[in-house]
Amino acid sequence: MRFDPAQGRCRSEADLGAGVFGAEHVLPPHHDPGAAAKRPRGAASPHRPAKTPAAGADRPATASGGGLRAAFLAVCRPLASDLACRRTVFLAEPQAANVHALRGAARRLRAGVWLFSVALPARDTDWVRRELKWLARQLGVLRDLDVLLERIATVQHGHYRGHTQPKDPLPGLATLARREAAVAALAALRSARATVLVDGFEAWLFEAAGDLDETAEAAGLVIPALRALDAEVHAHGRHIGRLRPRRRHALRGQVKTLRYATEAFVVLAGRPAGGAYLETLADLSHVLGALNDDAVGAALSEKMTPDAEPRPKTARRPRLKAAWTAFATAPRLWDALADSPACPGAARGAEPSRQGVIVQP
C-alpha cells in the first residue's frame, strides 16, 4: 500500500502485498543521537536502504500448510507497508481520522509480530513492542483531544440530553490544545526515531525471518498463541461490568490484540471472512473503546473547565454486557482448523514456551 500524493490517499489494496517502501516514504532525517542505539540488528537507518528480499520470501503461506517463515512475512509485510502509508498520510494532513488510522496501523503491526514472537529473539520483539508503543504514545494526546472535540460536537447537535452553555469556553480551549498537540505529534513522527522504525521495518522483518524455521508449520505456533490470549481475555473479563476504568482499559488492549491477531490468522487460513467470533471481537472492542472515550472526554472536560456544569453521560453498561456475552459464547474460529490433520502441532492444549509473551502482548 502506498500513498498517492495526487489522490491524497493510499493507493489500491492490491499493492498491500508488495511491502517495499517507495521514495514517498523516505522523509528528511532529523537528529536523534539515541536512534542508532535503539535499533536492533538488521534494521535500516534513514541513510541505508532495506535489504533485498530473500529467495522464496514471496511464496504464499497458509496456516494449514505454509512454513513459519513465509507465514511471518505474509502477515507482517502488508502491516508494515500500511504503517508507512498511514504515517505519510498523517504527515500530509493530521486530521482526526488519520490520527486514528495511524494508531490502529501501529497496533495491528504489534499484534502481527506478537503472533510469532514466541519463535523470535526476545531482544528484537522487545524493541518492536517498545518502539511501536512509543509511536502510538506520540499521538495519544492528539487522539484524546479529538475524542473531546467529537463529544462537544455531538452535544451541540443535540444527540445527548442536555446542551452546552452559550458561552462555554471548552470548545475554544480544546481546539487550541489540539493545534499545539498536532505540532508536537508531527515533530515526533518526522524524527529520526520514527523514520528508523517505519522505513527500516521491512529490513528487520527479513532479518528476523531468518531466525524462523521454514519447515515448521505456522498453525503449530499461531493457534496455541491465540488460544492462550483468548483464555487470558476470558479470565480478566469474567466480571466485566464490575471492572474499574484502569482494569477495563487493560482488558481493551488485550481484546484489540486478540482481534488483530485473529484477523492475521484469517489471512493465513485463507478464509474470506472471520465469522461470528471475529464479529463479536470487533463489537466488544468498539464498546470498550466507546467507554474509554467517554472517560477520556469527561476527564479532559473537567480539567479544562473545572467550574463548568457536568456534561451529560451516556449509559453503555447494558451494551457492554451484551457484547461480552456474544463474544464468550461465539465458536472459536481456529478450532476447526486446529483439529484438521493438515495442521500438525496445533492440537488442543499445546502451549508456546514463552508464556510471558502470550499473556503480556
Radius of gyration, whole Å: 21 Å
H/E element string?
Answer: EEHHHHHHHHHHHHHH
Q: Alpha-carbon distance between the termini?
A: 26 Å
Q: Uncertain regions: pLDDT < 50 for 5+ in a row? A: 5-9, 12-37, 44-65, 159-165, 344-361
Category from helices, strands and their pairing: mainly alpha
Sheet having the most strands? 2 strands, antiparallel
State the helicity in percent bands: 55-70%
Number of strands: 2
Oligomer: single chain
State which percent range the strand residues make up. Answer: under 5%
Number of helices: 14
Major sheet: order of its strands? Answer: 1-2
Shape: globular
Mean pLDDT: 75
Highlighted features:
single chain; mainly alpha; 1% strand; disordered C terminus
Short description:
This protein has 361 residues and is mainly alpha-helical. Helices cover 60% and strands 1% of the residues.
Description:
- The chain contains 14 helices and two strands; from the N terminus they run E-E-H-H-H-H-H-H-H-H-H-H-H-H-H-H.
- It has a two-stranded antiparallel sheet.
- Helix 2 (68-92) runs antiparallel to helix 3 (96-115) and helix 5 packs antiparallel against helix 6.
- The radius of gyration is 21 Å and the shape is globular.
- It has 361 residues and is an all-alpha fold.
Mind sketching the topology for me?
Blueprint: E1 3-4, E2 9-10, H1 35-38, H2 68-92, H3 96-115, H4 122-138, H5 140-156, H6 170-190, H7 192-199, H8 201-209, H9 219-236, H10 245-269, H11 275-304, H12 317-329, H13 335-338, H14 355-359
Antiparallel strand pairs: 1-2
